[in-house]
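User: I'm putting together notes for a lab meeting next week and I want to include a structural view of one of the chains we've been expressing. I don't have a solved structure, so I'd like a prediction I can at least talk through. The sequence is below, exactly as it appears in our construct file.
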Amino acid sequence: MDLITKNLAARYDAAAKGWNGKITPLGYPAAYAALAEKLGMVDAAALDILDAGAGSASFSGAFIAVHGPPKSLTLRDISADMLEVAQRSLHETGIEAHCVSGDIESLPAAPVFDLVLCAHVIEHCPSPAAALKALRGTLRPNGKLLLVVSKPHWCTTLIRLIWRSRAFHPEKVHALLAASGFDNVENVAFASGPPSRTSMGYIAALQEENHDNCDC
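Assistant: Thanks for the context. Below is the predicted structure for the 216-residue chain, given as structure tokens.
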């Protein structure tokens, strides 16, 4: 883990205890649930899921609230304190998760997941394309990615100043996803609150040529 990532992890460690109390009133878990609903009917009990950059597990928690418990859930984050908060909050709802400390770029290139959740993470990555390729490398054939990315807005500018993150227009996100081996990308706009101004949701599938021959 480089110095920039270590510093970011330390900042998220410091914020972990009160994180859910901050983002829930702002409507982010509700936005994640709305994105999960756009998947339609899924058999969650048959899915191995990765929440990449899981934070306090607000995204995976929202998915479970919509679709029910998955076959397995892996949480990966650079912040050990965030993972502790995530594991505890999921445990209180009867969900046991496997927690792994680490960044996205160092994910093993092995197709072991059916669904990847990733919210407000690639904005922090030195190479968003490399991060998305790493996520692609973890997906099985017919796997999908549920992605949330900050979009340009004056509210996002304030967030960027605080967290030193970036924001991307949807066209740029589509280009990054295509270059990383995803297609059939669907934009999911959030209906209200800060998420409607700061973020855009995306549902993406693996490109057909990557189903059998992933170059990760």
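A couple of points you could mention at the meeting. The chain has nine helices and seven strands. Residues 211-216 have pLDDT under 50 and may be disordered.

User: Perfect, that's what I needed.
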